[in-house]
Amino acid sequence: MKPKVLIGSAMAVALMGFGMLAGSVAGTNGASAQTSTTTPSATATVAPNNGQTDPSSGNGIMPGPGMGGRGGGKHGGGDGFMGGGFGGNITADGATQAITNVTSAIATAKTDLAYASGKMDTTDVQRWVNGADALLKSAQSANTASQYGQAVAYADAARELVMTAESQMAQKLGASTLPSYSTNPRFQGRDGNGNGQTTTTVPQAQASRILADTYNRLVAEGTQVKSASNASEATPYLTDAQNAYKAAYSAYQAGNYSDALSSARLAERLSNVAETVARASTAPANSDTPVTVPAPNF
């Protein structure tokens, strides 16, 4: 065999070995919750988000259901809060649009809630709709004070809370039974329970990682919420999220992975609310206003 061939073969083998090693290391870095004593081959069915657009939120992307990621898109007025930063349309127009959008969403949720009353336990749903009303008022007050960043953040939190309420009713009663099913963009392209049309089977290992990621997120957000100047507004939703995780953990330990993932989704939605409310405390007033650019004193 010619020397060039030998060298090429050796390099190919080395690269293959490196790839296998990297894959092994990456696999060991994944977080996992406490190992259940149930059979590892047990599975649960969960509907993936697939990055579906949620027109009811303006121009945003619906956050993944407990899959370890924020919405990542623009909500309400295109602010980018859920994506991790204060940028974008934090202006008078953006705040007004965000408030208009969530006002309509709250009205829709109230219609569905009236239908659901007497057909399911609506205690949580009623509390979340009331909370959305309160957050909307905070958004309106901030808008009046020309604090457009706060206005957009509060409106976004209210929208997320409305989505939580709608999802709970859809899960309990079936989305197709709700008065808003045919007109609510929240349910378009989704099945009768408000889930995506495509389902995949999730093994125990993946379910464990979803729960572990949710837990780590809640711990991190707990610190953020406690240090926020408006902690009293955000804490109730963090507490709800923590309680949802407790339910997810119990279901996971019992081998009920479908129930565990459902509760993890709820924890994710509620943690989104808590985080966005907390971020309102440090939101910029107006993205059209220049900030001081530091001189290169280095």
Account of the protein in words:
It is a single chain. The protein has 298 residues and is mainly α. The chain has one domain (59-280). It has seven helices and four strands. The strands form two sheets. It has a two-stranded antiparallel sheet with strand order 1-4. A two-stranded antiparallel sheet has the order 2-3. Strand 2 and strand 3 form a beta hairpin. Mean pLDDT is 75; it is low at 1-87.
Class inferred from helices and paired strands: mainly alpha
Arithmetic mean of pLDDT: 75
Low-confidence stretches: 1-87
User: What is the overall number of helices?
Assistant: 7
User: What is Rg?
Assistant: 22 Å
Largest pleated sheet: 2 strands, antiparallel
Range of strand content: under 5%
Could you estimate the helical fraction of the residues in percent? 55-70%
**Could you say which overall geometry the principal axes of the C-alpha atoms support?**
globular
User: Based on the structure, what is the oligomeric state of the protein chains?
Assistant: single chain
Strand/helix succession: HEEEHHHEHHH
Number of DSSP E strands: 4
Strand order across the biggest sheet? 1-4
Total of domains: 1
Cα distance spanning the termini: 59 Å
